[in-house]
Design a protein that fits this description.
This protein is an alpha/beta fold. It is 41% helix and 16% strand. Strands 1-4-5-15-10-11-14 form a seven-stranded mixed beta sheet, with helices on both faces. Strands 8-7-6-9 form a four-stranded parallel beta sheet, with helices on both faces. The chain is globular and about 55 Å long. It comes from Vreelandella halophila.
């Protein structure tokens, strides 16, 4: 009875996979916010080096992974695939449950899969300073780690509510040598304007992005790094799904259902896109389920429209599922899933009917994470609890229907720096929030006219 399926380091993927090559309809263009014309590479040059801009716009199926990046990946990749025997038994389900575990990275999540190449390509372009945003802190931690390896200065704007909730994430960033600032801050013009209106603002990823972009745009020696949403970030994460496909073959199995949590879309895309691409090329076609928080329901209740990626409206316009760039969700503990929009490529795939989406309240997700921890031994990050919840519900469905399906999900990070959230759950201090149609309509009222 095999529990974990391990690949040798030689099996680390040599290329990233690009879903755009297999889509039946191309991705809608990204628009210049001033002219509403499609952006040019020159429009993106203040923020990104040419190599990442090329990855952002390419439609080639495979993009080579530089050997120096693969060498760093060896620190934790290939990540293990587990069969959840104990969870299956606890649920009394005939289903088989597998999970890919990305919490084995130094930063504790999937985020270094993109942080390392982003820092590498910036360094190759002569850049020595990066700015970024972070919610829960997993991306900030990962870019701080990458900055340490690549000898780069990193400045992280962390959403204020997560900055206060997760002091140990901040401590890890500082251990790696990064500077972490609560957002909104007094360090940028936009941050000061937000604080002037509301000195107690809890922050949002949209605001933190605005602050990081503002600093990068002002200094030719500084570039901006994003932890999710953009095509090149999703591209880098596809090492997850590619490894998983090999490991499922090692197990002599193939998934009937694939589950991933979604916030900006990076871990979901990295996990699911290789399987979706296989399906589009005529191969096996598992059901794919994206699970998001009901407190930030972009896929299930957002509008598919052109919108800004940040609150200050400095970024290009992308067509995505959005709740409006001014949307500020409540300070629930899955800080990595609090972004107002969904990755354009994930949103486009949803419009094409390539996967389905569900939303869960946070208490139900913590309940699932605790059940998982008590059987499998790993304490999931609050974000990953959404995928756990989705997988457990699929297993319960199989039990009720008497179906022995194979369920596969991505456990995208551990919760070792999120124990304050679990403490709040056990103390009965967490609440669930659902939005009325009127609240969402108000948040969407400021969408740009395109």
């Amino acid at each position: 009875m095999t529990t974990k399926f391990l690949l040798d380091e030689s099996r680390i993927p040599t290329h990233w996979y690009n879903l755009q090559a297999d889509l039946p309809e191309p991705l809608p263009p990204v628009l210049n916010p001033a002219t509403h014309e499609p952006v040019t590479p020159a429009d993106l040059e203040p923020l990104f080096p040419a190599s990442l801009i090329e990855q952002e716009v390419t439609t080639e199926r495979e993009v080579p992974i530089p050997e120096p990046v693969r060498d760093v990946y060896r620190q934790w990749r290939p990540a293990p695939l587990y069969r959840a025997h104990a969870l299956e038994k606890a649920l009394g389900t005939p289903a088989k449950i597998y999970y890919k575990y990305e919490g084995v990275s130094p930063a504790g999540s999937h985020k270094p899969n993109s942080a390392i190449p982003q820092a590498f390509f910036n360094r190759e372009a002569g850049i020595r300073r990066l700015t970024t945003e972070t919610g829960a802190g997993q991306w900030g931690t990962s870019l701080a780690y990458a900055g340490a390896l690549m000898d780069m200065d990193v400045q992280v704007f962390q959403v204020r509510v997560s900055y206060d909730q997760k002091p140990y994430r901040r401590a890890v960033m500082e251990t790696y040598g990064a500077r972490c600032i609560a957002s909104p801050s007094n360090e940028t013009e936009f941050g000061r304007s937000v604080l002037a209106d509301n000195p107690d603002h809890t922050g949002s990823l949209g605001i933190a992005i605005s602050e990081a972009v503002e600093l990068a745009a002002q200094d030719p020696g500084t570039k901006y790094a994003l932890g999710s949403v953009l095509n090149h970030v999703l591209l880098h994460q596809t090492v997850i799904g590619q490894e998983t496909m090999e490991q499922m073959a090692m197990a002599g199995d193939s998934p009937d259902v694939i589950v991933g949590c979604t916030g900006g879309g990076s871990n979901f895309a990295g996990f699911a896109f290789p399987f979706i691409g296989q399906s589009l090329r005529g191969g096996e076609s598992p059901r794919v389920v994206a699970v998001e928080p009901s407190s930030c329901p972009t896929l299930t209740r957002g509008q598919y429209a052109y919108d800004y990626g940040d609150t200050a409206k400095m970024t290009p316009l992308t067509r995505m599922h959005t709740l409006g760039s001014g949307f500020t969700p409540p300070g629930f503990h899955a800080g990595g899933l609090r972004y107002h929009g969904m990755a354009p490529l994930v949103s486009h795939a949803k419009q094409l009917g390539l996967f389905e989406a569900v939303a869960y309240p946070q208490k139900a997700c913590f309940e699932a994470g605790i059940l998982f921890a008590r059987n499998e031994g790993i304490v999931p990050a609050p974000e990953a609890n959404h995928a756990v919840r989705g997988a457990i519900d699929e297993a319960i469905r199989c039990r009720e229907e008497g179906r022995a399906e194979t369920i596969l999900f991505n456990l995208c990070g551990h919760g070792h720096f999120d124990m304050a959230a679990y403490t709040s759950y056990f103390a009965g201090e967490l609440s669930d929030h659902e939005y009325s149609d009127g609240e969402l309509a108000m948040a969407l009222s400021g969408l740009p006219s395109v």
